[in-house]
Design brief:
Elements lengths: L2 H17 L3 H9 L5 H29 L11 H10 L1 H12 L5 H33 L1
């Protein structure tokens, strides 16, 4: 349950409890002094500023905690794993097209074109899906 739903449920429970109070307690609760509107606005602004400061601090803490030990952007152990080990059979296949027997450069270039086209379609589709998800949900 989200915080908004929990707060809404609590507000409804309090409202229901207030409506079921005896008349004497209603009169007593109406006699309790309330803050002027200016003080309400000031306290809301202070709470809002404190909330923004808390969010900023938590983002800074997360960024500091998630900083990797390597300094190059997007280069980490996963990059070497994917491009060095996982894609090794693809590299061998491409080399075999041009260095193996029987050798046919036009078909090798056709295979390279297919790989580039497939990669472009996959990454393009992921980009479009990301943009649609961002527009619909955020």
């Amino acid at each position: 349950m989200s915080t908004r739903h929990a707060a809404s449920n609590v507000a409804h429970a309090v409202s229901d409890a207030v409506h079921t109070l005896p008349d004497e307690l209603h009169a007593a609760s109406d006699a309790v002094p309330t803050l002027p509107d200016e003080l309400h606005a000031a306290s809301d602004a202070a709470a809002s500023a404190a909330g923004y400061a808390d969010v900023a601090a938590s983002i800074a803490n997360y960024a500091a905690a998630s900083t990797a030990s390597y300094s190059l952007p997007f280069v980490g152990p996963g990059t070497y794993l994917i491009f060095g080990i996982v894609l090794l059979p693809v590299y061998v296949m491409i080399l075999a097209w041009f260095l193996g027997d029987p050798r046919d450069n036009s078909k090798g270039l056709l295979g390279i074109g297919y790989l580039i086209g497939l990669t472009t379609v996959l990454w393009g589709g992921l980009l479009v899906a990301t943009l649609v998800i961002g527009a619909v949900f955020f």
